[in-house]
Prior knowledge:
Strand content: 15-25%
Structural class: alpha/beta
Amino acid sequence: MSRRVVVTGMGAITPIGLGVDEFWDSVKQEKTGFGTITKFDASEYKCHLAAEVKGFEGKNYMDFKAAKRMELFCQYAVAATKEAMEDAGLDMEKEDAYKVGVSVGSGIGSLQAMEREHSKLLEKGPNKVNPLLVPLMICNMAAGNVSIQFGLKGKNINVVTACATGTNSIGEAFRAIQYGEADVMIAGGTESSVTPIGVAGFAALTALTSSDDPARCSIPFDKERSGFVMGEGSGIVVLEELEHAKRRGAKIYAEVAGYGCTSDAYHITSPVEDGSGAAKAMEFAMEDAGVSPQEIMYINAHGTSTHHNDLFETRAIKLAFGEQAKKIKINSTKSMIGHLLGAAGAVEFVTCVKELEEGYIHPTVGYQVPDEECDLDYCKEAATGEFEYAMSNSLGFGGHNACILIKRYKED
């Protein structure tokens, strides 16, 4: 018998708010985080806009020396974890540290460290490269630093599935608790790739929008969409075995009901055109939760604002849900915060929990021009009213499909 898993704490560092409260207030105000790239001179690049985190100082969340030994993607994860653990009221002095684990992923790690030290290598030679380059750069260091900072000695993993990383990380943490490997898991994703090579690489792939209009740059499912806007930040949640949460009197936000993943086995960047891989991930998540397609009324879509993703994800939803697809509210949080890559699914999971809690489904901000081939309800306006389930999709380069299903918590 697998154990029930609940959400007891949340933390977020995003382009529209530092902390869950500020982020969620911005979501409800339909604020967007898009602006001209400030982290480097992007004037000669094909893409000039990003959704950068504003006003973040690592030393506000951790010891100054510790912050200096962490790249930005790690700092974001530690900051979001601090908020999530405080929100959960998790006191490590009262926990078995070996039963509190970490599943925090990053799609890329630190491109900043790589760029910085590569320049040094070329200009000054190999003996001038920072001895800490490797531990600063590698993407598992977000999970490692979270563990070190908070004394978490349980299972510690870093899932890397490109843009599905955040959702897979939370899903694998869910499984770890279900089957007794941990009582508590700190789970989520983190990313900071608004760098010269990061933007140049995605732009060369023609994945990024070339729009310079902050109001029309990240417009998922809109006929005029032209690519995604790179965002950055971190989303972290505290997942906990239900009885463990009850014993310590924790506030329970929601229950994790199901998780499904598949691979398209098709192409390194394009989703399979009929949407069958993503559809099967959604079907697996519903099977895992023991729910029927008719019970799902809301999906937080991957919704990147690229032509292929939005079209093929629409096909996937139709394939998984049939006639029910037309009754489902579908939105994309990326319409406000851009694409956080490895952190996207985690911040979107936080969004889903807040939406369930408040009975509020945010609009896909900026959506104006319907696309004949994307003909479902993409939430041009906000929707209110109680709903039982929130499904969140994440699809990554390499053909990774991940789907997680959250439900309103009810005591039996």
